[in-house]
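Run log // design_07
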């Protein structure tokens, strides 16, 4: 509990806070209606800003006026899971954390820099200890989570940058907590986007409140908005994954023509010698997210893009199923 002193003269005031006794001898002073700390004769005082809850009480030798208390803020919480096609391994059921292992994942979210307009979020950052975690909870990359209106699904009500782990969990920047939002409790479409994969969104609204809702976009039973919004991956651990190859982050996979996703891969390796490679950088052209941009040869990034638009007609286009 925090106190704001009024303009009354007082004697010795005894304050009992969290089981500790502080004795302050002073004329009462109005400290502030804001938050912070300050010094008074014989000691110091801390105060906070929140919902005003005004009240008075008597103590031996004086009167204490209660000023501001910090209220509990309601957060919408979401237990979310998703898979990225590029780094996904259907033999293990895990995504590669090659970018993390090579210390390439930035501490700050990358989406502001590539032109994404945040709604309520943006500027999220994590810490080196979170990126040092190994195993199934190791970080694969940053992702974008959007809450969209059920009345107008193209409207993003709130967005948040979060961390995707190898086992598919999407967590807050502390590496543990569910993703949290400040929007009012209601039903929302939940969308997940990535800097070089096509995003996907739930078909129907998900009821969100302070009790974490579960949305697993890796499961075929979780229906999504549009047609073929995710790529079905077969193997020992089958999964529904986000389509890889949206190098331009424009909600489209395109191999040929203007604004295609293939040319940036060639440009990144130098633009002349297709057998060149570029390693050791955090690049959106690195479609399979192995820490290397590669245009030709085994495990190259270009082939993934060609296969995802159909594999035989280079002018074909695949669009994200997001309104």
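design_07 sequence
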């Amino acid at each position: 509990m925090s106190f704001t002193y009024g303009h009354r003269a007082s004697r010795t005031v005894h304050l009992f806070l969290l089981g500790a006794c502080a004795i302050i001898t002073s004329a009462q002073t109005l400290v502030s209606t804001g938050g912070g700390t300050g010094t008074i004769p014989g000691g110091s005082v801390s105060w906070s800003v929140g919902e005003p809850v005004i009240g008075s009480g008597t103590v031996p030798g004086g009167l204490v006026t209660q000023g501001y208390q910090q209220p509990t803020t309601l957060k919408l919480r979401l237990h979310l899971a998703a898979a990225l096609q590029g780094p996904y391994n259907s033999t293990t059921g895990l995504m590669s954390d090659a970018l993390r292992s090579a210390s390439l994942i930035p501490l700050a979210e990358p989406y502001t820099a590539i032109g994404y307009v945040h709604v309520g979020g943006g500027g999220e950052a994590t810490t080196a200890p979170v990126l040092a975690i190994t195993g199934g909870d190791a970080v694969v990359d940053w992702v974008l989570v959007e809450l969209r209106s059920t009345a107008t699904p193209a409207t993003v009500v709130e967005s948040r940058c979060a961390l995707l782990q190898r086992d598919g969990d999407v967590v807050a920047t502390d590496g543990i907590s569910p993703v949290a939002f400040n929007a009012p409790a209601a039903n929302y479409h939940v969308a997940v986007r990535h800097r070089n994969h096509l995003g996907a969104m739930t078909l129907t609204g998900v009821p969100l409140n302070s009790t974490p809702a579960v949305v697993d976009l890796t499961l075929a039973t979780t229906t999504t908005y549009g047609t073929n919004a995710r790529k079905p991956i077969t193997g020992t651990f089958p999964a529904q994954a986000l389509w890889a190859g949206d190098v331009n982050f424009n909600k489209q996979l395109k191999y040929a023509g203007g604004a295609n996703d293939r040319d940036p891969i060639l440009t990144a390796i130098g633009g002349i010698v297709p057998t060149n490679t570029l390693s050791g950088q955090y690049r959106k052209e690195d479609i399979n997210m192995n820490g290397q941009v590669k245009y030709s040869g085994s495990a190259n990034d270009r082939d993934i893009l060609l296969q995802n638009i159909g594999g035989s007609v280079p002018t074909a286009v695949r669009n994200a199923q997001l309104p």
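The two ends are 47 Å apart (CA to CA).
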